[in-house]
């Protein structure tokens, strides 16, 4: 990298030309910094990361923002974006800056194995492609064919992470009980590419997206149910920008409709106080707030309470923007704040609707030593009651 004090006038213009077209809207008010969840924790990253500074350095064409704790600290939670009075898309600006670093081969070492795994096996978890369907070994999951209405697109995390496979299995169970026409394609599916694009590996994202689009179109896919809000965002918005438009819903939206139509009968009583954690990519990125609450409220015996910060003000779990693959020290984890909030509200269960959130909240729950607090995906709770 060049001397950080030396201006590179074309840098800001290059960011704009490659997708960060709102960069120059930033007027340095600092609201993004005040909104950032890194301000709520302590540690090295919270001291170094300043999103306003990164934007300003890009505007001025000055390098020096490339370190892991600066440019790659952002979890892309989106709170700065929704609060920005100038509607600057900070996330896209960050993504483009990361892409410039990635193109030069300077991504943080932790992401190199992730990118290699995506290129070789179509998933970020360094699992073999033929292991993608291992989560179905003990259950009967329908295959998608020309007579199937919905493709069930299972997030790589729920395919390869042992804890999160339980989420996919529970969803299959509920959909079968509701008589839904759905199926999976199988090993040919690849990662949607959402997180890897946020890391900056644009070429890898484009390759993954092209393979999936070709596969979906070849199989006649029209409607998709996703297990992950990250997949929802990319399949609904980013694939559409590539010319591939599908009717994509998150499973909570789909289940809320099934419950309303009387196609899901809930006959057991949970008898628990449940607090809901809004995933950033379900809420702020896709504006889905009511559906998960409707599903929870339909379950008998649930006393639902809210986090201190919820819906659009929800705090990130810390797993977005590629940080699901990084190690964050206890005390500097956003999830720790959520666990403390849940305990303050005397909740028995933290419910969420995202595999990333499940992993991150589980980690914080262990750190905080709250063994009597359960972390559950909404569909896991629902499956228990029907």
Question: Any overview of this molecule?
Answer:
By secondary structure, the protein is an alpha/beta fold. The protein has 3 domains: 10-103, Alpha-helical ferredoxin (Fumarate Reductase Iron-sulfur Protein, Chain B, domain 2); 109-256, Rossmann fold (3-Layer(aba) Sandwich); 264-385, 3-Layer(aba) Sandwich (Rossmann fold). The protein has 17 helices and 8 strands. The strands form 2 sheets. It has a 4-stranded parallel β-sheet with strand order 2-1-3-4. The protein has a 4-stranded parallel β-sheet with strand order 6-5-7-8, sandwiched between helices. Helix 16 (355-368) links the parallel strand 7 (349-352) and strand 8 (374-377). Helix 4 (51-60) packs across helix 6 (90-103), helix 13 (251-260) packs across helix 14 and helix 15 (334-344) crosses helix 16. Residues 1-9 have low confidence and may be disordered.
**Tally of alpha and pi helices:** 17
Strand arrangement, major sheet: 2-1-3-4
Helix content: 40-55%
Strand element count: 8
CATH class of the largest domain: Alpha Beta
Here the CATH topology of the largest domain equals Rossmann fold
Tell me, what's the shape? globular
- What structural class do the secondary elements suggest? alpha/beta
CATH architecture classification name of the largest domain: 3-Layer(aba) Sandwich
Rounded mean pLDDT score: 93
Q: Spans with pLDDT under 50 lasting ≥5 residues?
A: 1-9
Distance between the termini: 58 Å
The quaternary organization reads as single chain
- In what range is the share of β-strand residues? 5-15%
The sequence of SSEs as H and E is HHHHHHHEHHEHHEHEHEHEHEHEH
How many domain units? 3
Largest beta-sheet details: 4 strands, parallel
Radius of gyration: 21 Å
């Amino acid at each position: 990298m060049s001397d950080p004090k030396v201006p590179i006038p074309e840098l800001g213009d290059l960011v704009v030309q490659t997708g960060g077209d709102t960069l120059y809207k930033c007027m340095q008010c600092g609201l993004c910094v005040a909104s950032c969840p890194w301000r709520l924790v302590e540690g090295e990253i919270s001291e170094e990361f300043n999103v306003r500074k990164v934007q300003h350095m890009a505007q001025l064409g000055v390098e020096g923002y490339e370190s892991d704790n600066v440019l790659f600290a952002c979890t892309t939670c989106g709170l700065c974006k929704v609060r920005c009075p100038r509607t600057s898309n900070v996330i896209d600006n960050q993504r483009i800056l990361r892409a410039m670093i990635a193109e030069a081969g300077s991504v943080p070492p932790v992401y190199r194995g992730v990118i290699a795994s995506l290129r070789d096996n179509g998933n970020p978890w360094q699992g073999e492609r033929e292991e993608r369907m291992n989560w179905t070994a003990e259950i009967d999951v329908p295959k998608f064919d020309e007579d199937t209405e919905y493709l069930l697109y299972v997030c790589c995390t729920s395919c390869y992470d042992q804890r999160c496979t339980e989420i996919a299995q529970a969803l299959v169970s509920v959909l079968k009980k509701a008589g839904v026409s759905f199926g999976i394609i199988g090993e040919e599916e690849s990662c949607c590419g959402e997180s890897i694009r946020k890391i900056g590996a644009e070429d890898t994202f484009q390759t993954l997206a092209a393979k999936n689009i070709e596969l979906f179109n070849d199989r006649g896919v029209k409607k998709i149910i996703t297990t992950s809000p990250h997949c929802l965002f990319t399949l609904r918005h980013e694939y559409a920008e590539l010319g591939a438009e599908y009717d994509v819903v998150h499973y909570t939206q789909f289940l809320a409709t099934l419950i309303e139509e009387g196609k899901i009968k809930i006959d057991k009583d949970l008898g628990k106080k449940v607090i809901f954690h809004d995933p950033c990519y379900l809420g702020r990125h896709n504006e889905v707030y009511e559906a998960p609450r409707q599903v929870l409220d339909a379950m008998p015996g649930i006393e639902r309470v809210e986090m201190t910060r919820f819906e659009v003000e929800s705090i990130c779990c810390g797993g977005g923007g590629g940080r699901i693959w990084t190690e964050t020290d206890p005390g500097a984890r956003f999830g720790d704040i959520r666990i403390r909030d849940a305990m303050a509200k005397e909740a028995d269960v933290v419910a969420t609707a995202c595999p990333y959130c499940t992993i991150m909240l589980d980690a914080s729950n262990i750190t905080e030593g709250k063994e009597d607090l359960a972390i559950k995906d909404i569909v896991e709770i629902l499956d228990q009651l029907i």
